[in-house]
Structures are given as structure tokens and as C-alpha cells.
Specification:
Layout (H helix, E strand, L loop, with lengths): L4 E8 L5 E7 L9 E6 L7 H5 L12 H11 L3 E6 L3 E3 L3 E3 L5 E2 L5 E2 L6 H16 L2 H5 L3 E6 L3 H15 L5 H12 E7 L14 H8 L4 E6 L1 H4 L5 H17 L3 E5 L8 H10 L2
Parallel strand pairs: 3-4, 3-9, 9-10, 10-11, 11-12
Antiparallel strand pairs: 1-2, 2-4, 5-6, 7-8
GO cellular component, one term: mitochondrion
InterPro entries: C2orf69_mit (IPR018881)
């Protein structure tokens, strides 16, 4: 474990919501600071929880603390904040219920506003207070990342951007508008969940509002999600998502990794090490 990695337990967010946050200080302080916020997938948890499960020990190298260190090595001038889900059902299913309405296995129902953006804003302010790094809370630009199930949070943010885009200016919308200004890029890493829809945002209205934010998009996918014959809707939705964004003129990078290989859970996780 990196000496500058901290496990922050029950960090306060919006309206009594709390999340654990794994925080890593930035490695290079000469460059302007940024903050990478990461939401992980099913199975990923603290290493001791993964090792105690009959099957998940095979993927313990992708535990949330290890991923925080991977991100710290990729983004050396960034503070890293890995957000642990509110609940990991059966030590398997990541439920980001503090950000998006979801069922017991974490499959989402997206509402116009679940205060996900406000919760994230307050979480980061709390992290800044606990760590003594004020720039985490209000000054530095944000890069938001989701991997696999964690992408449900990213999708909820897009619905909230749309909601606030059409809301008359008031105190709450002003706070959320300030939060949106900080976000410079959102990165989708092989998004997927157990539901049969809403793996990717396909609403042209929601994506049009997103385009107005000026936020850049990176998409990294593998055959495990987009070429799975048992879940064909995932590939179809992802194609709609990136095609619409491109038509709207969003600054977009997309790459299919392991494109010539069959769908593989091992490659799905390996994406975390190779995506940039």
C-alpha cells in the first residue's frame, strides 16, 4: 500500500448520506492539481472483503485500494478519490444507492434528480476538510470515472445535468452549476450492470443538454460488455451513446480494447491497468 493512501470511513455527503472514500495524495505537486473521482464495479471492495469471499479472491489485485494506486500512477498530478459504494450486497453487487436509485443488486432506475451531483460535491468538501487539501473540495478540475457497474453513477450525473440545464436559477441549481463547471472529463470504462436497459444513456434530449456543458468524454470498452451475445442491448446502447455524442459535437475519444479476442472477464478487469 502506498504510504500516502488513506481509507476515509463514513465521509459525510448530502443529507446524512455517507460513503467511504479511498484517498491518495498527488505524486507531483509542480503541475496544476486535478482530482480523479472513481466509481468501481461489482466484486471490487476492500482487499480483506474480497479475500474472504469464496470466488472473488481471484480478482483481489483489482480491489479498490489497488485501483486507487493504479490511478495514482497514471495521474501523478491528481488527487485520487475512489468512492466505495454505500452497500456491497452479498459481498458482490455494488449498490451506489447514495447516487442513484437502484435495486438490491445495484441495477439503476434513473430519476431526473437524485442529488448525486450535490452529494458528490459535499463528499469532496468533506474529503478536503479531513485531508487538509482544500483544492480537492472546491478549486481543482474534476475527472470523473466509472468502471463497469460504477458507470451507473456517471449516467445519473448526465440525467442531472439535463435537469439543472432546464431549471430556473436558484440556490440549489447554482451550487450544482458550480459543480458542473469543475468537471472537465467523464470516462466510461466498460460500463455494464445486471438490468436489461439503461446501461448507457441514449436519450437525445439528455445528451443534448450534456453537450452544452463542454465536458469531454472518453469511452473504453471490451468485448466482455459490448460483444456479449447474451446481453446484446449493451452493445446497441453503447453504439447509440457514442454515435449521438459524436453527432452533437462532443469532444470524444473511444477505443475498443482486446477487440480481436472473445469476451473475457479477465480482460474486462485488465482494462483498469491499460486504458491509458
Amino acid at each position: 500500500m502506498a504510504p500516502n493512501l488513506q481509507r476515509l470511513v463514513a465521509v459525510s455527503g448530502y443529507n446524512e448520506r455517507v460513503n467511504d472514500v479511498i484517498f491518495v495524495e498527488r505524486q507531483i505537486s509542480t503541475d496544476p492539481a486535478s482530482v480523479v473521482v472513481f466509481f468501481g464495479g461489482d466484486v471490487q471492495d476492500y482487499p480483506e472483503n474480497m479475500k474472504s469471499h469464496r470466488d472473488h479472491g481471484a480478482y483481489v489485485e483489482y480491489n479498490l485500494e489497488a485501483v486507487a494506486e493504479i490511478l495514482a500512477s497514471k495521474f501523478k498530478s491528481s488527487f485520487i478519490c475512489v468512492i466505495r459504494p454505500a452497500k456491497v450486497e452479498l459481498k458482490t453487487f455494488s449498490c451506489f444507492s447514495n447516487f442513484v436509485t437502484c435495486n438490491d443488486i445495484g441495477s439503476p432506475t434513473h430519476l431526473p434528480n437524485q442529488n448525486a451531483l450535490l452529494h458528490l460535491t459535499i463528499l469532496l468538501l468533506s474529503v478536503a476538510e479531513q485531508t487538509g487539501h482544500s483544492e480537492v473540495g472546491c478549486e481543482s478540475p474534476l475527472i470523473i470515472m466509472g468502471f463497469s457497474k460504477g458507470c451507473v453513477v456517471l449516467n445519473q450525473l448526465l440525467h442531472e445535468f439535463h435537469y439543472f440545464h432546464h431549471l430556473p436559477v436558484d440556490k440549489e441549481s447554482h451550487i450544482n452549476a458550480l459543480s458542473m463547471v469543475r468537471i472537465k472529463k467523464i470516462v466510461w470504462l466498460d460500463g455494464g450492470h445486471s438490468g436489461r436497459k439503461d446501461t448507457w444513456v441514449t436519450s437525445s434530449n439528455v445528451l443534448s443538454s450534456f453537450q452544452s456543458t463542454g465536458i469531454a468524454v472518453d469511452i473504453h470498452v471490451t468485448p466482455y460488455q459490448v460483444n456479449d451475445d447474451r446481453r446484446p442491448w449493451i452493445g446497441k446502447e453503447e453504439k447509440q451513446f457514442h454515435t449521438l455524442l459524436k453527432k452533437l459535437g462532443v469532444v470524444l475519444f473511444r477505443k475498443v480494447h482486446f477487440a480481436e479476442e472473445p469476451p473475457s472477464l479477465d480482460n474486462h478487469f485488465l482494462l483498469l491497468k491499460i486504458f491509458c
